[in-house]
Target: Proline--tRNA ligase
Amino acid sequence: MANAPVQRMSQLMAKTLRDDPADAEVLSHKLLVRAGYVRRTAAGIWSWLPLGKKVLANVERVVREEMDAIGAQEVLLPAILPREPYETTGRWEEYGPELFRLQDRKGGDYLLGPTHEEIFTLLVKDQASSYKDLPVILYQIQSKYRDEARPRAGILRGREFLMKDSYSFDLDDEGLTRSYGLHRQAYQRIFERLGLDYRICAATAGAMGGSKSEEFLAPAEAGEDTFADCPNCDFAANTEAISYEVKPVDGSAVPAAEDIPTPDTPTIETLAASLGVPASATLKNLLVKVDGEIVAVGVPGDREVDLGKVEAHFAPAAVELVTAEDFVGRPDLVRGYVGPQGLEKVRYIADPRVAPGTSWITGANKADTHAKNVVAGRDFEVDAYVDVVVVDEGDPCPKCGTGLRLDRAIEIGHIFQLGRKYADALKLDVLGQQGKPVRVTMGSYGVGVSRAVAALAEQTADDKGLCWPQEIAPADVHVVAAGKALQTELALDVSAKLAAAGVRVLVDDRAGVSPGVKFTDSELIGVPQILVAGRRSAEGIVELKDRRTGEREEVTVDEAIARLT
Ligand code: ATP
Ligand code: MG
Ligand code: MG
Ligand code: MG
Model:
């Protein structure tokens, strides 16, 4: 067996800290900083110190092995990218303020890649010419850049972060389904090997576009996603991906879209006019009152249909626009959250007359909207930095109707069937078997490599500190020299022997640091096995301790080495 390294803490470029960093809100942030794994360089921008880099590299290795196992080929594309292809697909604009844009000295526009669909599409366009070149799966493990609005959770949400992104290219839908399935399996193996508890949930495609998509969510308090889980069937979905239709409470069925009588001009503007209020685009998240009760209608992106339903079910005369006063002192009606720009989103609780889990929307408190002059905190509850929840605990499962359970989770991976969105925009064809060009169909797949480190810390840490599974830990054994020269000598000797047998060792050989501090640090750092050279070193007896269970045992040096190798 090859010699494994011995990392001496006396030389380690990292200091452990007694106190949590002042700005840390989540456990992984606190512990990774205190244990000397990472250091903040700027908001959402992190440096990885030796122990952290080892853990990160271990996650990378697992990801790489499982990607290679499905036949994916590793490449490395640039992180700084030209504007043009993103302009062609529309994402230069669509990505909004999250995109880091920059210029070179000649005034040329560039961006720092948030995800690389465009560039991979162009690479394949350049390299593949015939159906014989497909299918192909390409991947990279690379820093990604997103100017996140709230980089608050340490490594969990960086503005620079490490992602494994891969892209599949197939000739037909069947091929895409196969490539997607391969990724799904690879991701299951990756997260199982990492020791992460996770669920596969239906998801929305977001900025990526495309049709089918699933997320791998790791349940954790610190998570910023909420997933709904059905206790009765296999339904599991990010609450972002669940929407309910507006249904009247009298139990009458929602008419099919074609059965809804179309008002003369079925627009928000028409309704606004009939209500005697100025028509404006800000009315698109419309809230109305029916018989004095607030009913939310007008789901964003579905304007006409919803209006049709309103007019079909409620006599227009009974419909009245909600005003700011309706919310004053009514925390039961609204919940919002506050971000750096002030109040950012408001959720309106559905009217009780509407069947549970039916109609709610998010609205905005910008100038001139229906809810202006409402003060967050005074007039309704504010959940600072909490995402808008559109589905409540106990709402009916879309599959079987059972009450859903809701949990917080961290998104650790996301797989998408993109279809031909990018191939169409960038004209990616290959010559098909019949000699005619065939438009390629694509998938894109991401694992948050650096986020997985933090997610693992969240799920495995205990009240003493980090507590890594062996495959991911920065070392297999943490050897502690608890005493003076004799103990240090024994600790270094044992370390060398373990290393010769291929065991990765971190040895605390620091002079002038008390055994108590060393014990606390060993628990904070979280290597799975701890070997202490202490009081009985002269007799050749050491203590073996299991970091997770806390179980300890005194054994001879030879016995300890035998057990750890
Ligand atoms: P989120 O919803 O958390 O913002 P996302 O849906 O925007 O993530 P994707 O575009 O699906 O992210 O990217 C693929 C993966 O990259 C995610 O599943 C996540 O694990 C990781 N990731 C995304 N944004 C970040 C970030 N800011 N910091 C660390 N990891 C991230
Ligand atoms: Mg995001
Ligand atoms: Mg997401
Ligand atoms: Mg995602």
